[in-house]
Specification:
Length: about 270
């Protein structure tokens, strides 16, 4: 199955975000992709909380979500909005991944479970929990022949989540991201390959890249990894673009048969505290 990962440099307003991502989506569809995934924060990236929160709308009202739903229907493709930053019904904000079918319907939604709260040696800080309410439910979904496990960015560092998704039947892990440049340079590819190997699943990771309007820098280097751990497609830069990949849908079953770690695991008692 031919899939596409869209790499963006999302602007600081949703209207500009839609104008930025739509041409890339159409380019991917024109190249034959039947499943197209975008990065985390596809609708807007604005690290100033006071500027961001007034811009957030519900997923039914957000211009990027509605625009990509219309585009999915027009193009007849599955679209994974890696995440849209949206307002929940209770007024809180969510970092939400949305799966859109070829008829434009939202068929699955996943709120990012793990919040990236960190002080980096470079002086950069992040406090996602100050803005977003974390999710509480792992989510699998079907996109045609693809059996998806939906995750977002920092979730990558919690392997138990991917094991749970694999045991629930997921064969393709989506990991849309807006990775920082220092952590991207150090950990991006090796963690993506590790999650693929451990779960015996494809990993599809569309990324934000470059220096954004709000001043943040993101790593780019969108990547697709096969269940055996080999990189099957990768961008070698942080510029906006489209990454195409062909998925052999039998590869997950073959990898899991060769390395049956999902079924060989045994329960154990927790170790004593040192």
């Amino acid at each position: 199955m031919k899939v596409a990962l869209i790499q963006t440099r999302t602007p600081a307003t949703p209207e500009a975000g839609l104008a930025h991502v739509l041409p890339l989506l159409r380019e991917a569809a024109a190249a034959g992709a039947k499943f197209i995934a975008t990065p985390e924060g596809t609708n807007v990236l604005q690290k100033d909380r006071e500027l961001l929160l007034p811009m957030l709308k519900s997923e039914q009202e957000d211009v990027v979500v509605t625009g990509l739903r219309a585009a999915a229907k027009d193009l007849g493709v599955w679209v994974l909005i890696g995440s849209a930053l949206v307002k929940r019904e209770d007024g809180k904000a969510a970092n939400r991944s949305l799966l859109i079918s070829p008829d434009g319907a939202i068929t699955a939604a996943y709120d990012k479970l793990h919040m990236f709260d960190v002080d980096l040696p470079t002086g950069e800080t992040a406090r996602e929990s100050a803005t977003y309410e974390p999710g509480a439910q792992a989510v699998t979904a079907r996109a045609g022949e693809l059996k998806l496990g939906m995750t977002v960015c920092y979730d990558l560092r919690f392997p138990a989540l991917y094991r749970a998704l694999a045991l629930a039947g997921a064969e393709v892990m989506t990991i849309p991201a807006a990775f920082t440049r220092p952590t991207g340079a150090a950990h991006w590819e090796v963690l993506m390959r590790a999650r693929a190997i451990e779960s015996g699943a494809f990993v599809l990771a569309p990324a934000q890249g470059g220096r954004h309007e709000d001043g943040r820098g993101t790593w780019g280097h969108s990547i697709a990894v096969a269940p055996w751990g080999e990189v099957i497609a990768q961008l070698d830069h942080d510029e906006p673009g489209v990454l195409m990949a062909d998925l052999d849908l039998e590869a997950a079953a073959k990898a899991r048969a060769a390395i049956p770690n999902l079924v060989n695991a045994r329960p154990f008692a927790d170790p004593k505290q040192l």
